[in-house]
Amino acid sequence: MRHAPGTFSIAARDPDTSTFGAAVTTGTVAVGATCPYVSATAAVVTQSYTNTNHGRDAVARTDEGERLDDVLDERLSADENADYRQVHGVGRDSEFTFTGDECVAWAGHRVGDDYTVGGNMLAGSDVVDATAEAYESTDGDMAERLVSALEAGESAGGDDRGEMSAAILVHAPDPEFYHNLRVDLSADPVSDLRALLTEARRAKDQIRSETDDLFSEYPDEILNFGVKY
Question: Domain limits at 51?
């Protein structure tokens, strides 16, 4: 089984709901462990030859009031291996895209209204375009739009080797446990991510129904689980 960096992803913001989200799929395992980062002020994806500190520092510093583009410009300027990186994301008041010269073809990015898309080692530029267009045209909440974007990118050719893992990560004022979903190893991770999102939504309703059966009265707050980032 071959493992090598190669990914397509989307980072997005919904200014109407103060929600930030990222979704990513790749041709190696456990992409959700290293690539997507979100906070109350930003969504960032670091990929190709990933540097997790770029994503971690970016969302932390935007939370402190810095502009995302300034933070990532600074970090990549100081990174002697920047040519091998691909980083993109959105903040409250800025977008950022970077594809290093040594990223494996096809590699590139796109900026849209309130989102960025990037990919490397892809079947072609149609993957990025399809991902972007699906995000723009899909109705629903952030999680729905992100998974639909990955599905469209995969249908357009996806990772040139085929995908092995996929993830979504969402930061919202009202967190749900389906805002942090990972498929770490699968022959069809994007399809499995869709199934996982569907089941997670159903599970939310089931947990409330089961709690109603267990208790005649209970504080609603016990069902506010929050999300681990």
Answer: 7-223
